[in-house]
Amino acid sequence: MKKVWLWLLVGVLGLSFLAAAGCGPEEGMIKIGIVQIADHPALNDARDGFIEALKEEGFEDGKNINIDIQNAQGDITTASTIAEGFVADGVDLILAIATQAAEAAYKATKDIPIVITAVTDPVAIGLADSLEHPGKNVTGTHDMNPIKEQLELLKEILPDATTVGVIFNSGEENSRVQVEILEKVAGDFGMTIVKAAVTSTGEVSTATESLIGKVDAIYIPTDNTVVSAIASVIQVSDEHKIPVIPGEESCVRAGALATLGIDYFRLGHQAGKMAAKILRGEAEPSTMPIEGQTQYRVVVNKAAAEKLNVTLPASLLERADEVIE
Fold it and tell me: Whole-prediction pTM value?
């Protein structure tokens, strides 16, 4: 009888061990941590493009890699905690989506490869020595906007516009860089820039209201805070018939007028292809140039134009990559 109980005890312990082993990643699987600063369409697209590219390269979640996706919901402290957790878990690679997530990841580790995406100026914030030669454990894709070309688009649609408002988070380095560029190139188009700074999504509606009566159009950079609250911008601007030209196309689908902008799925996809080379040992982040997009999509919203009583040029509609009816 004692032998029977002994074998039962061994069996129970064995099952318990197997169950516990099944709770975590399989032995030998590559571990990838994804830290995303906030939840909005552009950043979600970048994340999905990254995962899709890895799959195309033979790295599939649940098969030979384990992907841990965590979102900081706009909180920098949370992003740091997530990044530190990935380092403690011994992940093989970190994907950092957006500037603040990238800063958190780099602060947490100088050894684990970090691939970034949706970061406007990685050199300015100390993540790389240069785009061509990063020199550190960071590489990936940046999302510097074609701001001059976007103002050309604005002028094409609104030839009489002379004053443009810009809403941005003054605490986001990527946004400050874009606003500085915007102010520099605006003079080439005979435009004056009126700034409305915010520090949280809750301030976006009020900032938009502050521009009413002062501007002919509103420009939205690729600012995580403002894009997360784009519905507030559209609501106020529609009410006062002020066209909105954003830096990326998800805002156009949300009701902005038009953009010549970045395809964030494609941007994340580029980063995923780069990550695959690192995982295969074919490249090192320190010597892998940080890439940007060279081809941009023209997306216009005809429904928004009708609301605003704006006539879209026929030439623009003909060359648009996407027309939202």
Answer: 0.81
Burial of 110 by CB count in 10 Å (0-12 exposed, 13-18 middle, 19+ buried)?
A: exposed
Helix %, strand %, coil % of the chain (to 5): 45, 20, 35
Task: Classify 125 as helix, strand or coil.
Answer: coil
Give the separation between CA 132 and CA 118, rounded to whole angstroms: 17
- Give per-residue pLDDT as tens, 3-26: 444 444 444 444 443 344 444 445
Name every residue whose Cβ is closer than 8 Å to that of residue 274 and which is 6 or more positions away in sequence: 115, 139, 140, 141, 283, 288, 291
Residue in 294, 308, 305 with CA at minimum distance from that of residue 146:
294
Per-residue pLDDT tens digits for 142-174: 999 899 999 999 999 999 999 999 999 998 888
The Cα diameter of the chain in Å comes to 96
pLDDT digits over 295-309, tens only?
899 999 999 999 999
User: Domains in the chain and their CATH numbers?
Assistant: 30-143+264-287 (3.40.50.2300), 147-261+297-324 (3.40.50.2300)
> Which H helix or E strand runs over 71?
strand 65-71
